[in-house]
Amino acid sequence: MESKVIDMETLIKKVDSEHPDERAMEEAGQLIAAGELVAFPTETVYGLGGDALRPEAAAKIYAAKGRPSDNPLIVHIADFSDLERVAREIPPQARKLAEAFWPGPLTMIVWKSDAVPSATTGGMDTVAVRMPNHPVALELIRKSGCLIAAPSANTSGRPSPTEAQHVAEDLSGRIAMILDGGPVGIGIESTIIDLTEEKPMVLRPGYITPKMLSEVLGEEVVIDPGIIAADDTRKPKAPGMKYKHYAPKADMVIVDGQENAVVDKINELVRQKQAEGMKVAVIATEETTKRYDADVVLCIGRRSDEDAIAQHLYRILRECDELDVGEIYSESFQTPRIGQAIMNRLLKAAGHTVLQV
Ligand code: TXA
Ligand code: MG
């Protein structure tokens, strides 16, 4: 299907993230109901919303993002009962997980009902569903009277937006409205769990860990082997995970190891690149920031505060592009709880280039 991107005036509306203005939310809801696209904050990243049950809205989303149309969208709901509209049947695990984690940063994959057009699911028989934990997102769903299909509101291939400004950079002139509810809380996309497999399977790591999921389910939760492989030998099951994502323009190398060794190695590499006349950036934690001699040192947060690291990651990757550096060296952030989710994004940004010291 061919769809054109129309240049339009994009309205940017500031809304209070706890108590969004009623009139602004009504206006945004009407736009969605009329088949237009509205970007909105969620607790994970900003989403680009359209009516999930209208194929034309899905086509508009793909066109605005420049996203391949075989990459399915997540359907956002505001009430558990809405799951019945989009799922052919509700697996018992979905009830347990919803009870524990919805609204929240968890997406569940279930068999889809006929109500969901295949344009929304990229031709798949399954559908991804999430109830976001953000007053603006929930209010937008309610005011629109629709279920809202929403991928992250970035141009395909760029880091997901964690601030309204990032959405404006990527999508201004291509969508009707951006609801600006300030910076998001979590900063990386939801955990995706597939409930159509024999064993529940995590297709994308996120804030909700496999351990948390298996504790609630009382059964083993497996991780899609395709997201761990650094090569192309195994395809990830979530189509979006196979695309080169989040990659900054500059080459990026992750240096992993004991703190002092990492600092020494990165400084040595920086000196080499600078001798070649290159501008170099380092992504570091607060603990080590002052120890680097690069052109730019970007501080991602305290190493002991993994929530802050997740929250700042995409903004920092975007900053690397703006600074126009030739090479980026990053520390590794294998933090205890969400390190797997953080490293999944960082490894993609670095094209899986890791230097062990
Ligand atoms: O936190 C989030 O999930 C954000 C916010 C806006 O809710 N949304 C988001 O959507 O990250 P998106 O489209 O950027 O990523 C959705 C991922 C893609 O990798 C896609 O391939 C996968 O979910 N996905 C969607 N439906 C699927 C399905 N039926 N089967 C397998 N993977 C699916
Ligand atoms: Mg995305």
How would you summarize what this structure contains?
This protein has 357 residues and is α/β, with parallel strands linked by helices.
Question: What does this molecule look like?
Answer:
With 357 residues, this protein is of the alpha/beta class. The chain contains eleven helices and 16 strands. It has helices at residues 22-33, 55-65, 82-86, 92-101, 135-144, 164-171, 210-217, 239-242, 259-275, 306-323, 339-349, and strands at residues 11-14, 38-40, 47-51, 74-76, 106-111, 126-130, 148-149, 177-180, 191-194, 201-204, 222-223, 251-256, 280-284, 296-299, 327-331, 354-356. The strands form two sheets. An eleven-stranded mixed beta sheet has the order 1-8-2-3-7-4-6-5-9-10-11, sandwiched between helices. A five-stranded parallel beta sheet has the order 14-13-15-12-16, sandwiched between helices. β10 (201-204), α7 (210-217) and β11 form a beta-alpha-beta unit. α1 packs across α5 (135-144) and α10 (306-323) runs parallel beside α11. The mean pLDDT is 94.
